[in-house]
Amino acid sequence: MPTHTIPPVFDAHCRTLILGSFPSVKSRETAFFYGHPQNRFWKVLAAVFGEPVPQTVNEKTALLLRHHIALWDVAASCEIDGSSDASMRQVVPNDLSPILQTASIERIFTNGGTAHRLYQKLIFPETGIPDIPLPSTSPANARSSLADLTEIWMCIRE
């Protein structure tokens, strides 16, 4: 069963937490979030904040922290076929307490329907903090264009 090996990104100044479902095969290979070149997460964040698209892990981390955004995933481990969220089973949730005890998180957003459903089922009963679901930045979400995603994701701005 794959386990989550990418540590969360956060510091004491974070006010927003974005949760994905579980790292893709490519993200696990690159050892950082949204590592597949077709995933639009970094393009969307850059557009939302009017910044260049970050390329390196350091640039991506700096973009998040500059805008007081923490980033992690709902699942700590799960059975999964490749990178398909729809195939996730036997999900063990991540413990958000290190983030919630360090940062004053005011809002939690979930990236995609699976992250939202898993958050509602596995984490919301523990935290009591409602999430705000956003459309997935995954290339599997062909319904949403980059422009559509950027417009909807504007709500993450503080």
Q: Quick recap of the structure?
A:
The chain has 158 residues and is an alpha/beta fold.
Give a written overview of the molecule:
- With 158 residues, the chain is α/β, with parallel strands linked by helices.
- It has one domain: Uracil-DNA Glycosylase, subunit E.
- Helix 5 links the parallel strand 5 and strand 6.
- The chain is globular and about 40 Å long.
Order of helices and strands: EHHHEEEHEHEH
Q: How far apart are the termini?
A: 37 Å
Per CATH, the superfamily is Uracil-DNA glycosylase-like domain
Helix content: 25-40%
Brief descriptors of the model:
alpha/beta, four-stranded parallel sheet, Uracil-DNA Glycosylase, subunit E, two-stranded antiparallel sheet, globular, 6 helices, 158 residues
Secondary-structure map:
Blueprint: E1 16-20, H1 25-30, H2 41-49, H3 57-66, E2 69-73, E3 75-79, E4 89-93, H4 97-102, E5 107-111, H5 113-127, E6 131-134, H6 146-153
Parallel strand pairs: 1-2, 1-5, 5-6
Antiparallel strand pairs: 3-4
